Amino acid sequence: MIEYIIAGFSALLTFESLLAIIIGLVCGIVIGAIPGLTADLAIILCLPITYSMDPVPAILLCLGLYCGGTYGGSITAILINTPGTPANAATMLDGYPMTKKGKAFKALTMALYASFVGGIISALILLFAAPNIAKITMHFGPPEYFSIAIFGLSIIASISNKNIIKGLIGGIVGIFVAIIGQDSVSGVVRFTFGSSKLAGGIPLIVTLVGLFALAELISKADYRPNEDMSRKTKLKIDRETVSFGEFKRCIKAMLVSTGIGTIVGATPGTGGGIAAFISYDQTKKMSKRGDEFGTGEIEGVAASESANNATTGSTLIPLLTLGIPGDGCTAILLGALMLQGMVPGPSLFKDFPDTIYAIMVGLLFVNIFMLIIGKLFTRYYVNITRIPYELMSAIIVIYCVAGTFSSEASTFHVLVSIIIGIVSFILRKLDFGVVPIILGVVLGSLVELNFRRSMVLSNNSMSIFISRPFSLIFLLLAAFSVVFFFYKLIKSGKKETT
Amino acid sequence: MKIKYNSNLISGALFLVVGITMRLLVPSQIKTYETSDINAATIPMLLLNMLILLSIILLIQGICDKAKKEVILSKKLLNKETLAKLKPLIYMLMLLAYGMILPYAGFTISSLLLSNGILLYFGARKWWFYVIVSANIFIAYYVFSNLLNVALP
Q: Is B62 inside a domain boundary?
């Protein structure tokens, strides 16, 4: 393992990789700090650029955007009481009251330190835990891959809020998008409606841009610049920073929250937002100043920010070892790996050990650079929140189109992406989540391919899925995930009636 | 005329129609000559059957759910508030028009029209917004054509 870490270091320490980290972080922080624009969108916009890059800098660029976006969301949460990303909602609770007390710089600095602590510890856990899990998963065959993909799809239950039916329909829609085009086993074309341009299927980037980026832009089409309160208030950042005593007081909160964030992040179907709220609540209960939480207590900022950044490393554990994306952002990262010819899952550590170790070591560097960039530019962050949304909307559309076109050099695919965007917007209006759809898109073809391969291996006997221990375990986990959803639903129903 | 609806009702009906239509289209859209029990049509058929079943459940949920929005179809519906809700429709139409004219007008001209159109749509009054957005189109063209070797249309 040590030799792989050293090989990973040497693959990482190139000008291109380090530059990719810095660009990714800066863009991620800027996009994360603009309300409504998330790390997901930032990664999608940069995916076309990664085509022409080597795998290590390409994925590090995406990781820079992911970590930068998660941290950047805290800036608006603290300064204008609007979380840049859903993961930063808990940061508002004490961050904004600190700004109102004239301690914005202190809150931003604490958010930076906490993000660094959470991010670096979870990156270390990823580096040492993932290879050990991969040692077991390396021997998996088609039945295990099928069961893992089914487990991945079962996450739909935990992210479907109250209506699992809508989550399941979303998942089916996603799988259907994935199976359009030539069948990889028999070569038969499916649902192309006679168009030769669809024979190769709908490229992942076309789907992602439509589902996330264009749908997001359409859903914010009712934005009214004149009614945006954040543009009317003029913010100034003070100079009072975090004292040694305050930092020392927050250490316990940061470590506990990092632990919670790491565990929550490694559990598929959760995310930074849930981790931050659980950690905030726990820290509030543990702290001597628990009563002051919500009024501008620095421990509250430390707890929520270390927790949401701790998920950035741990969400990669199921992604890299099993190929299971835990949330929308990691589903897009899975897409980024696929575009580089690397299919996340059991075989990844066997087929691309140097690249994968370089990426894991790179995550440590991403967090170190994040601290440096944050220290240098915190006082200028207030300017990011002043970037007008209408300007961003008009610019993002252009890069979406250019990126979509670049995948197949076809204007037809640009139109397909726009149509997917409109359909995605309509589905959002009808209370459908976008994450089940994307899970269907990225896991759908894996489910079908490995199901059919397993059937060939077993002479069409379904018993192959329960006769192999790991396959059975993942199917049971999938069943547990669904049963747990209904248990929670019944429990919350009982609470409402009492 | 009164119409009562909720999102489950609409989604259930919508996906039921889509599911049945796609199910009927399977023989013409998946022409497989495989003789085995499991072939290229197996999973799509299974998914479509599930989609139809789930849509029916959703439709029943929608009918049983007492929480429904009520709309009275009359001329009063054409007020400012309702029209404001339809604003994203203009944005969608702009995108669709862009997708249609892109093959004929090329990236630069169609993107200039769209991005400046978006600024007008949001009511941007500062002239330098238009300059920044227009400059970005040329930057994107240069980056994709020269640095990423993607010849934009």
A: yes
Is there a domain that residue A328 lies in?
A: yes
* Residue B90 falls inside a structural domain: yes
The three-state (H, E, C) secondary structure of B58-85, written as one string: HHHHHHHCCCCEEEECCHHHCCHHHHHH
How far is C-alpha B83 from the geometric centre of its chain's CA atoms?
Answer: 19
Contact assignment for B29 to A190 by CB distance below 8 Å: yes
Structure letter (DSSP) for residue B2: E
Complex confidence, ipTM:
0.92
Query: Which residues 16-75 on chain B approach chain A with CB closer than 8 angstroms?
Result: 22, 25, 29-34, 36-44, 47, 50-51, 54-55, 57-58, 61
Name the phi and psi angles at A134, rounded to 5. Answer: -65, -30
CA angle A82, A85, A90 (to 5 degrees): 65
Please check whether residues B68 and B12 belong to one and the same domain. yes
Q: Structural domain of residue A265, as residue ranges?
A: 2-142+206-433
Overall number of domains in chain B: 2
Report whether pLDDT(A497) > 60. no
Contact across the interface for A188 and B30, Cβ inside 8 Å: yes
- Residues A72, A74, A77, A79, Cα dihedral to 10°: -80
The tokens describing A278, both together, are: 């659980």
| Segment A227-239 mean pLDDT | 68
Nearest Cα neighbor of A399 from A6, A7, A1, A27 is: A27
Q: What is the pLDDT of residue A234?
A: 65
Domain residues for B52?
2-73
Q: Does B152 touch chain A (CB under 8 A)?
A: yes
pLDDT band at A409 (very low <50, low <70, confident <90, very high): confident
User: How far is A367 from A64, CA to CA, in rounded Å?
Assistant: 8
- How far is the C-alpha of B63 from the C-alpha of B59, rounded, in Å? 6
B122 to chain A, any CB pair closer than 8 A? The answer is yes
